């Protein structure tokens, strides 16, 4: 699985990070989330155009009017040329199941959407989403979503091979810790936000020692109009 993220030069991907800010509605307090350029957005659409599915956490789809769409005909033709379904499937991860069916991503019926949740979350979501048959709800664990089980299920039942994870920091962290990320597409914007109130690319629990840290190598980078676009691949050599 690939991760695609945009961050500031000091590693912030925006959005509330400090626990005291988490209950604040994001659209009303988070204009600093909209810091990407048109070029970065086009790169995101090109990356999506090579993927079977897009995966996001609850925090991300609630952070704005996000529909995880293709970007239009040009990208749909690229998908068709690669033999992919015209619209990528969508997977939303929410352990709690407290997801609003009004989120923009659930209005788009063009591709099946899976909500990966827990046993308790499933009860809640089945009631909330029963009028949206294109949204499937499945439990992959009791307290947390077992992400390895989720990915195995997506391979087996939806035949998903290439998937892109588009954040946010908490879900990214859980995926890194489950050793499910092979590739990172990272854009660095020429900005510094500073402070501790913003999310980073990988929040949550993190790794606790250097040998455990997820390890990648930069395989490509280029700069354009002040931004840096880079690709990292997972390192397979064992650490000394
Ligand atoms: N710059 C960028 O490229 C970029 C990309 C994406 C997002 N963002 C920003 O990132 C912010 C959102 O990030 P975030 O870290 O707050 O949220 P997030 O990672 O999108 O979602 C976190 C939620 O995902 C669920 N989750 C994650 N791992 C789970 C697991 N193993 N089991 C069960 N549930 C799991 C939980 O939902 P429940 O609480 O329902 O259990 C958790 O609260 C937004 O402000 C957005 O703008 C930036």
Would you kindly provide a written description of the structure presented here, covering whatever features stand out?
The protein has helices at 26-29, 38-48, 58-61, 73-81, 119-128, 147-158, 169-177, and strands spanning 2-8, 12-16, 53-57, 89-93, 113-117, 135-139, 163-165, 183-189, 198-200, 216-224, 227-234. The chain is built from 7 helices and 11 strands. It folds into 2 domains: 1-19 and 31-46 and 172-240, Dihydrofolate Reductase, subunit A; 52-161, 3-Layer(aba) Sandwich (Dihydrofolate Reductase, subunit A). It is α/β, with parallel strands linked by helices and 240 residues long. The radius of gyration is 17 Å and the shape is globular. The mean pLDDT is 92. It has a 9-stranded mixed beta sheet with strand order 6-5-4-3-7-1-8-11-10. It has a two-stranded antiparallel sheet with strand order 2-9. Bound molecules: NADP nicotinamide-adenine-dinucleotide phosphate. The site of NADP nicotinamide-adenine-dinucleotide phosphate has 31 residues, from strand 1, strand 2, strand 3, helix 3 and helix 7. NADP nicotinamide-adenine-dinucleotide phosphate binds at residues 5-6, 13-15, 26, 30, 33, 56-60, 63, 93-96, 98, 144-145, 147, 166-171, 174, 199, 203.
